[in-house]
Amino acid sequence: MDWQKLFVTFFYSGLAPKAPGTFGTIAGMAAGIVFLLLFPKSTLFTAIIALSIIAMLEINKYEAKTGTHDDKSIVIDEVAGIWLTMVMIPFDWVSMLLGFAFFRLYDITKPSIIGRVDRKLKGGPGVMLDDLLAGFFAGITVLVLQGLYTKFLGA
C-alpha cells in the first residue's frame, strides 16, 4: 500500500474524478466532526499543527516523486484548512455549513493574500498555506456574520 498517497489524498478522497477538493473537504469535515465529538477544540487545533507540518514534508516528497506541483488529488491541505475553520466557529450545523461554504469559496477563488501565497510559495508550504489562510478567513467570515446577525436581529 502506498501510505504517502493514502495520506496526501486523505484516504483517497482526492481521487474523485470531479471536484476532488470538495470531496477532500467533505471527508475532512466528517473526520473533524467525529474528532470534535470525542475531543475538545484545543486538541483539534494541536492536530492541525501536527498535520500541517507532516503534510508539508510529505507533499515535498510526493511532488519530487511524481514531478507535479499541487496536484488536484492532494487534498490534505483542504483537511487542514477546514479543520482550522471548524476550531474557530461554534460547533453547530449552521456554522459548520457556512464554514464549509466560505472555505470552498475562498479556496477556489483565492482572493487577496490567499492567491498571492498560492502563486509565490512552492512545494509543501505553498500547497498547505493557501488552504490554511482560506480556512482562517472562512472562520473569520462566519464569526462576523454571526455577530452581525446577533446584533441586528437579536438572536
How does this model look, in words?
- Helix 3 packs antiparallel against helix 4 and helix 3 runs antiparallel to helix 7.
- This protein has one domain.
- The longest helix is centred in the last third of the chain and has 31 residues.
- 41% of the residues are buried.
- It is built from seven helices and no strands.
Which secondary-structure class do the elements indicate?
A: mainly alpha
Largest sheet: none
DSSP, total strands: 0
Radius of gyration: 15 Å
Principal-axes shape call: globular
Element order: H for helix, E for strand: HHHHHHH
Entry keywords:
78% helix, 7 helices, 155 residues, mainly alpha, single chain
SSE layout and pairing:
Blueprint: H1 3-8, H2 20-38, H3 41-66, H4 76-88, H5 93-109, H6 112-120, H7 123-153
Helix pairs in contact: 2-4, 3-4, 3-7, 4-5, 4-7, 5-7, 6-7
Write a short abstract of this structure.
This protein is mostly helical and 155 residues long. It has helices spanning 3-8, 20-38, 41-66, 76-88, 93-109, 112-120, 123-153.
